[in-house]
Specification:
- It is an enzyme of class 1 (oxidoreductase).
- Its EC number is 1.11.1.6.
- Pfam families: Catalase, Catalase-rel, Catalase_C.
- It comes from Sphingomonas hylomeconis.
- The protein is α+β, with helices and mostly antiparallel strands.
- The protein folds into four domains: about 40 residues, no CATH class; about 300 residues, Catalase HpII,  Chain A, domain 1 (Beta Barrel); about 80 residues, Hemocyanin, N-terminal domain (Up-down Bundle); about 140 residues, Class I glutamine amidotransferase (GATase) domain (Rossmann fold), CATH 3.40.50.
- It is about 25% helix and about 15% strand.
- The chain contains 18 helices and 20 strands.
- The structure holds CIS-heme D hydroxychlorin gamma-spirolactone.
């Protein structure tokens, strides 16, 4: 039986109480239900009667439980938390949310983009990172992604992007993936996608955990101070746990092992008090800086290298409470880039400008009413009021006659309602560049023409392994373009503008000749490499937030197991015991030790490192168990540390494990190795493009 708390303001619980504390089951209209097992029939074996209002109401409600899923970002996971401003930026912004020491309630929803609500958590895809701040000056929504740039420069292209990437219109597949004809057909015809494609083909789209990825506001916004002076700003979220990604083979196998891998990871972390944290950072710059750059700061396909404008940390986000109800909160939350507060403002980025239009509109079709702001997850926590009235599902009950403004009802002793305030949101009045105002033009500014320099910058800033992963992803995705022969060469022609070596590697991987270079609207330039763009250079040498799988079987040494669990927990990681039977294994001391997961259902891809804690007896039994061989083989193939007892060696041999730095005993050397991935192993394991 669930609580049915109603909208704040209408007050109270809706249950009738029985004599004890257990609430009584009622209809939606409060009538107690005496039998929830049997419908009303004409005779014990006769037809059901129309009169059965209990049955009809229950089925009627059930039939209407679903609402349209989001056209993009349909699959998501949400959590509550708090944002604390940690630095004084009152010289830059008057927003209350940035007052040093101010704590603001937040709700965050992470999502994949292309898949439906029931799709898997680990496809190669961009992740949404949407934050709703319930500030004391109204809701501010920072609706960003885990990648700092976007596919397109102008919102008018968004429906084409989404149609191309989602399942193909006639056949209804593939679900949740870009590796298909229509996406690459469209992308290869749109050179402005090139920079974002580099990010999408990198390990950025394979995050290990939602807790281990960055977030970005993407667009250039404005900060506005008390005096009305405005500065440009880009927003960044930096995860406390550093960056971690899986590799492609692992992500694919994760889809089979656990569809809900990220959702479960987030929920369990919060549930066990390991609250995920991010720092909020800002890059602030002025018009003069903007005009001096070789790219346009209003172009959402461009980033501002952190080496040019360092990220200043101004706050901390902590997610500390899971939702009580997925539908009521995570599904019904409505993010709106138009939710902005005094002290922050938009820029003229044409992608952002289009978003300002789209999100309000979509909530009406998803949530069915213009009163969606009254759904508790969307309601401002500060007082709010205006003269907008009525409409479907109006749950507030405004009192009095004042439903228009101005009015003088207060002069007559009546309630007059709210009034305007000079301290309210005021749009910045600032000249924003030479091309932006004046004649009505359906054009793209000339300053948006360079589609390749930053794609090159991104590629150049990666480690060798990361570059190989990018090349391999292009090969994988373009190999899935089945029917349209013209597409891979067209993509290769674009890639030649990014990096000749990359283009050659992809061509070799596809078994194609390199075509002529595509003509660039503007010749790319070389920019200095930026370490901030690499995942490998931003990983943390820590076990915090990670999970170590320990494979045990009958005969496993009890003391060794205790010591290992202790060492893992001392390093702030989670030890997860895997055994052939979930009931556990009988250890060397004769006791049964319960497992957290059964071997076949807990493959090594769900762990960051594995320990194979077997006796000779246990190892002999597992040598005949394909799931055990796979457990070890995949851990090795996914470049993870493997700690093993001497007795487990035959299993390691059978799994093809070769000695390297990541293959250790089960002592301190394992704990140190478990913090890393062993990328040097990879070229010996699979052909990388
Ligand atoms: Fe969008 C949802 C992020 C461009 C139209 N978008 C949505 C969500 C995120 C983003 C994180 C999910 C919010 C949630 O959890 O409910 N979108 C972005 C970013 C963009 C971007 C970072 C570029 C920088 N989006 C964009 C454009 C348009 C849209 C250009 C349309 C012109 N986006 C939508 C939408 C969605 C949405 C159709 C689907 C559901 C929703 O809004 O509430 O309106």
């Amino acid at each position: 039986m669930t609580d049915t708390t109603r909208n704040p303001g209408n007050g109270g619980e809706t249950h009738q109480q029985a004599g004890d504390d257990t609430p009584v089951l009622t209809t939606n209209h409060g009538v107690p239900v005496s039998d929830n097992q049997n419908s009303l029939k004409s005779g014990a074996r006769g037809p059901t009667l129309l009169e059965d209002f209990v049955l009809r109401e229950k089925i009627f409600h059930f039939d209407h439980e679903r609402i349209p899923e989001r056209i993009v970002h349909a699959r998501g996971s949400g959590a509550h938390g708090v944002f604390e401003a940690t630095d004084d930026i009152s010289d830059l912004s008057s927003a209350a949310v940035f007052t040093k020491g101010e704590k603001t309630e937040v709700f965050v929803r992470f999502s994949t983009v292309a898949g439906g609500a029931g799709s898997v958590d680990t496809p190669r895809d961009v992740r949404g990172f949407a934050v709703k701040f319930y500030t004391r000056e109204g809701n501010w929504d920072l609706v960003g992604n885990n990648i700092p740039v976007f596919f397109i420069q102008d919102a008018i292209k968004f429906p084409d992007l989404v149609h191309a990437v989602k399942m193909e219109a006639d056949r209804g597949y593939p679900q949740a993936g870009s590796a298909h004809d229509t996406f690459w057909d469209w992308a290869s015809l749109m050179p402005e996608t090139t920079h974002m494609l580099m990010w999408a083909m990198s390990d950025r789209t394979l995050p290990r955990s939602l807790r281990m990825m960055e977030g970005f506001g993407v667009h250039t916004f404005r900060l506005v101070n008390d005096a009305g002076k405005s500065s440009f700003v880009k927003f960044h979220w930096k995860p406390k746990l550093g960056l971690q990604s899986t590799i492609w083979d692992e992500a694919l196998k994760l889809q089979a092992a656990d569809n809900d891998y990220h959702r479960r990871d987030l929920f369990e972390a919060i549930d066990t008090g390991a609250f995920p944290e991010w720092e909020l950072g800002i890059q602030v710059f002025d018009q003069e800086f903007a005009e001096a750059q070789p790219y346009d700061v209003l172009d959402a396909t461009k980033l501002i290298p952190e080496e040019d404008v360092p990220v200043r940390i101004i706050g901390k986000l902590t997610l500390n409470r899971n939702v009580d109800n997925f539908f009521a909160e995570t599904e019904q939350v409505a993010f709106l880039p138009t939710n902005i507060v005094p002290g922050i403002d938009f820029s003229n980025d044409p992608l952002l400008q289009g978003r300002l239009f789209s999100y309000l509109d979509t909530q009406k079709s998803r949530l069915g009413t213009t009163n969606f702001h009254q759904i508790p997850i969307n309601t401002p926590r500060c007082p709010f009021g205006n003269f907008q009235r009525d409409g479907l599902m109006q749950t507030m009950v405004p009192k009095g006659r004042a439903n228009y403004e101005p009015n003088s009802l207060a002069d007559h002793g009546e309630e007059g309602g709210p009034r305007e305030s000079k301290a309210g949101f005021a749009t910045t009045n600032a000249a924003t560049g030479p091309d932006e105002q004046g004649d009505k033009l359906r054009v793209r500014a000339g300053t948006f023409a360079d589609h390749y320099s930053q794609a090159r910058l991104f590629y150049k800033s990666q480690t060798e392994n990361e570059q190989a992963h990018i090349a391999s992803s292009f090969v994988f995705e373009l190999s899935k373009v089945g029917l349209l022969d013209q597409v891979p060469p067209r993509m290769l022609a674009n890639l030649r503008n990014v990096d000749e070596d990359l283009a050659q590697r992809v061509a070799d991987g596809l078994g194609l000749d390199l075509p002529e270079k595509a003509e660039a609207a503007k010749e790319p330039v070389d920019m200095p490499a930026s370490d901030a763009l690499s995942i490998h250079k931003n990983m943390k040498d820590t076990l915090e937030g990670r999970a170590i799988g320990i494979l045990i079987a009958d005969g496993t040494d009890a003391d060794e197991l205790d010591a290992l669990i202790e060492a893992i927990e001392a390093a702030d990681a989670k030890a997860v015991i895997v055994a052939p039977k979930v009931g556990g294994a009988r250890l060397s001391d004769g006791d049964m030790f319960k497992a957290d997961g059964q071997l076949a259902g807990s493959p090594s891809q769900i762990f960051d490192a594995v320990a194979i804690l077997l006796s000779e007896e246990g190892c002999a039994a597992l040598l005949k168990e394909a799931a055990a061989v796979d457990f070890v083989m995949n851990a090795f193939g996914h470049l993870k540390a493997i700690g093993a007892t001497d007795a487990a060696q035959p299993l390691l041999d059978k799994a093809g494990v070769e000695d390297d730095e990541g293959v250790t005993g089960i002592g301190d050397d394992f704990i140190a190795a478990a913090k890393k991935r062993f990328y040097a192993r990879e070229p010996g394991l699979r052909t990388l493009a």
